[in-house]
Amino acid sequence: MITGKGIILRRVTNLDIPQLVDICFYDGEKAESVEQALTMQEKIDRDYEDGTSIHWGIEDLTSGRIVGTCGYYRGFKNASGELGCVLLPSFRGKGYMTKAMQLVMDFGFLDMGLEKVTAVTSTQNQAAIQLLEQLGFSKTEEKEEMIYAEFCRPAFSRKIRRFTSLDQKQVLTLLELNTPKYFHPSEEKDLITFFDRFAEHYFVVEEAGRIIACGGYNLGFEEGKAARLSWDIVHPAYHGKGVGRKLTAFRLDELKKHPEVKKVQVRTTREAHGFYQKTGFRLVSTVKDYWAGSFDLYLLELLLKN
Asked: Does the record's keyword annotation contain Acyltransferase (predicted)?
């Protein structure tokens, strides 16, 4: 669910279908009955489970009525998503689609890490063309009475800052998004304890007001000569896009301000240890099932050059 000004985007349920029959489509085919619309919705739900689409109903917060649908369709190849939207006729021209499309675009760029959003409409659909222009789309092609347009990822401001207690909810959400691939479900309790006792040198990466990564360091190991990087978490949409590397480099620079620290350690898992090796850390040892069943400990070290 995504909440905006006057609307929410939420999952379409079977209870919504009778009022949406007039705008139910799948692969260009329009539903002619409630039964056909329900079948189409089943296909849309399967596409969502397969990771090739995201489909929302647009609900008016004042009346609670569903006024249309929107989403991403036809997959996400090359970090690109194709937008689609349709409103019930009685709700057109009232600003619903402008607000819904902006929410969907923000979700695509900030939550999914898309690099480009595309849209296709008919040359006869002046309302859709005006909407795309209003949202900042650029026309890329016109052929066979269809217009193709795109909006590339904006240059959002991004900064690294210290963690505060107000960030805890967003950081726990990042942990959940990376569980169970990188973290065991039992580790949430350990992270909450960390917040309470050991987060003096913990940082977050913030983009457009949202936390997309976090990580810290702790001092005092091996008689003060070693430090450890701690609780590195990156939003899955930003994996492989340099966010983790920049946060690691930032902390290594911070550690150079502690002249007593000569070595930096990382205690991580099999899934993540390769990232640290690429940034210069050396694998020292492993311990089977250390964090939990099938979650082995990988200990890596880096000599710090002050």
From this structure: yes
- What is the enclosing helix (H) or strand (E) of 249? helix 243-255
The token pair that represents 162 in the structure block: 């210290």
Q: What pTM was computed for the model?
A: 0.66
Domain range 2-152, CATH class: alpha beta
Q: In sequence order, which residues have a C-beta less than 8 Å from that of residue 159 and are 6 or more positions away?
A: 205, 206
Residue corresponding to tokens 């939990």: 292
Select the CATH number that applies to the domain covering 158-303 from these four: 3.40.630.30, 3.40.50.2300, 3.30.1300.10, 2.40.50.140.
3.40.630.30
Lookup: tokens for 44: 């849309």
All CATH 3.40.630.30 domain ranges of the chain, comma separated, are 2-152, 158-303
Structure confidence by residue, pLDDT tens digits, 8-50? 999 998 998 998 888 888 887 888 899 999 999 999 989 998 8
